[in-house]
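pinned: reference chain
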Amino acid sequence: MDNNEVDQLEEKLDARVQNVLDKARVSTTDESEKEPLSEDEMFEDLENDDLAMANFREQRLNQLKTEMGKLQEMQQHDHGTLTEISSEKEVLNITTSTKHCVVHFFHKEFRRCQIMDKHLTTIARKHFKTKFVKINVENAPFLVERLGIQILPCVICFVDGISTDKIIGFDELGNTDSFSTTLLELRLSTSGVITKSDEPKKEEQRKTIFGYSDKQHEDDDDWD
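pinned: its structure tokens
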């Protein structure tokens, strides 16, 4: 049942409720009625709409099946969470074996890295098909050097094992600690690593994991 059908069902139910209320009002103002409808009679009248109630039950069952499917997918692929990994080998294995992957290079003592973690955790719950991982730069000296990571936080997006985009610091997020999760989600969608409806993909030259040129930023945490 799609959103339009749900909306139509809700409109029908609202009209049905309005019908019952209208009958109740008539019964209290019409002198030909001996007694006004009681609350029990109103609810009984409403519950007699078997089709509407059946549709509501079907809607709930469909929603339950959808949520259970998402949960199973998350459990099977360890998606739906921001997972910390501890080795560079894991980064290489995950990025080359997962269709969509977001990797956050962080430092545990950097406040902006903690802010990025919070937003990525929220986004990960919404995008089960994308794997979200993070690695402490102290555990990834080789990748830090090869990728030219000098500013933290640094978020790199991978699609089919190819790095498609890099988010360095908060410059593209308003250069403020109070940017919204929605803004980061929109920014990630331009890389193709997550899908957000009605948003065009950003045209990016596909590069390998070691294919980025250096980009200088001044307002975030330096990592040398």
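why pinned: Strands lie at 82-85, 100-106, 131-136, 151-152, 154-159, 162-168, 221-222. The helical segments are 3-29, 39-47, 50-77, 88-97, 111-126, 141-146, 181-189.
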